[in-house]
């Protein structure tokens, strides 16, 4: 239903017949049908994939760190990816989408390494408090450098899209190149569900079951870095999706990751598609960045979690 609504409504609204014909009786000379096929459809599919990727990334972070506040956006990973994109746009403006995505993933990996190194510096097991504080510090650091470079290089206006987040620039070409990697990452996480369930136990208990806790965490973090890096390269540094959705999924289906992960994928896709639909229709013909719409929900949810789990952070 959300898919159909998002395809139909926007700066200009289309009839049900136009939407139907654009799928089953496509006429390339019809402007409205071209808008649906070439602009809105890749945009909606991109929103679905990105929402699923960000939501699953957040769920993985929460499982690995045992911290309900963990999220790739809040812990600086998205900011690291955005920093590398800023460097690409500044020094290599004609770089291909695939190459910029590779650099985005590298930036996400660097940020993740810094956050986890700092948060576990004084203890053998990372502190949830230090994790959140380290993530905020790294995020502020990379964001400040990115904005400084953008000002010097006169790219502030061009990079505003990536700071606020949006799917308006997603194209079929990008989806063909990057969509399969997101899908592979999501499938890989689903196959890891049983091992992720073990992370609720102590490390000694996991080892007694013959499982390698370090390998589980490392593979999980690689998935987080890849999914987050690709997401940022496509839609910008969108926060809170990975914070909100895993909690809602667990509320609906329980804590078993075999059920939580598929529900997280569905709800993450729904949230971003709905946010994008609202962003396009709230103030036509102007478009509100959908990252702002998500933040309006995410900030109160963050405060609620902070009050509920104040003993853990």
TrEMBL record:
<protein>
    <submittedName>
        <fullName>Iron ABC transporter permease</fullName>
    </submittedName>
</protein>
<feature type="transmembrane region" description="Helical">
    <location>
        <begin position="130"/>
        <end position="153"/>
    </location>
</feature>
<feature type="transmembrane region" description="Helical">
    <location>
        <begin position="288"/>
        <end position="306"/>
    </location>
</feature>
<feature type="transmembrane region" description="Helical">
    <location>
        <begin position="260"/>
        <end position="282"/>
    </location>
</feature>
<feature type="transmembrane region" description="Helical">
    <location>
        <begin position="219"/>
        <end position="248"/>
    </location>
</feature>
<dbReference type="InterPro" id="IPR000522">
    <property type="entry name" value="ABC_transptr_permease_BtuC"/>
</dbReference>
<comment type="similarity">
    <text>Belongs to the binding-protein-dependent transport system permease family. FecCD subfamily.</text>
</comment>
<keyword id="KW-1133">Transmembrane helix</keyword>
<keyword id="KW-0813">Transport</keyword>
<feature type="transmembrane region" description="Helical">
    <location>
        <begin position="44"/>
        <end position="61"/>
    </location>
</feature>
<keyword id="KW-1003">Cell membrane</keyword>
<dbReference type="InterPro" id="IPR037294">
    <property type="entry name" value="ABC_BtuC-like"/>
</dbReference>
<keyword id="KW-0812">Transmembrane</keyword>
<feature type="transmembrane region" description="Helical">
    <location>
        <begin position="181"/>
        <end position="199"/>
    </location>
</feature>
<feature type="transmembrane region" description="Helical">
    <location>
        <begin position="73"/>
        <end position="92"/>
    </location>
</feature>
<keyword id="KW-0472">Membrane</keyword>
<feature type="transmembrane region" description="Helical">
    <location>
        <begin position="98"/>
        <end position="118"/>
    </location>
</feature>
<dbReference type="Pfam" id="PF01032">
    <property type="entry name" value="FecCD"/>
</dbReference>
């Amino acid at each position: 239903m959300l898919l159909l609504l998002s395809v139909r409504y926007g700066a200009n609204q289309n009839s049900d017949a136009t939407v139907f014909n654009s799928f089953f009786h496509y006429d390339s000379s019809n402007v409205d049908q071209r808008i649906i096929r070439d602009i809105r459809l890749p945009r909606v599919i991109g929103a679905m994939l990105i929402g699923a990727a960000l939501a699953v990334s957040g769920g993985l972070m929460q499982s690995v760190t045992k911290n309900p506040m963990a999220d790739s956006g809040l812990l600086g990973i998205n900011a690291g990816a955005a920093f590398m994109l800023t460097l690409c746009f500044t020094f290599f403006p004609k770089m291909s989408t695939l190459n910029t995505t590779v650099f985005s993933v590298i930036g996400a990996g660097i940020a993740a390494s810094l956050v986890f190194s700092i948060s576990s510096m004084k203890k053998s097991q990372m502190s949830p408090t230090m994790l959140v504080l380290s993530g905020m510090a790294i995020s502020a650091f990379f964001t400040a450098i990115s904005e400084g470079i953008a000002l010097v290089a006169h790219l502030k206006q061009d990079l505003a899209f990536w700071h606020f987040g949006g799917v308006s620039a997603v194209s079929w070409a990008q989806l063909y190149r990057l969509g399969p990697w997101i899908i592979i990452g999501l499938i890989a996480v689903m196959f890891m569900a049983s091992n992720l369930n073990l992370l609720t136990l102590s490390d000694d208990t996991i080892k007694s079951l013959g499982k390698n806790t370090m390998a589980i965490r490392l593979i999980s973090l690689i998935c987080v870095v890849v999914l987050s890096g690709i997401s940022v390269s496509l839609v910008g540094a969108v926060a809170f999706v990975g914070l909100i959705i895993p909690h809602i999924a667990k509320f609906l289906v329980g804590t078993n990751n075999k059920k939580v992960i598929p529900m997280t994928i569905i709800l993450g896709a729904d949230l971003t598609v709905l946010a994008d639909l609202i962003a396009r229709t709230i103030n036509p013909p102007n478009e509100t960045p959908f990252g702002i719409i998500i933040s309006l929900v995410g900030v109160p949810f963050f405060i609620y979690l902070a009050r509920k789990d104040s003993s853990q952070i």
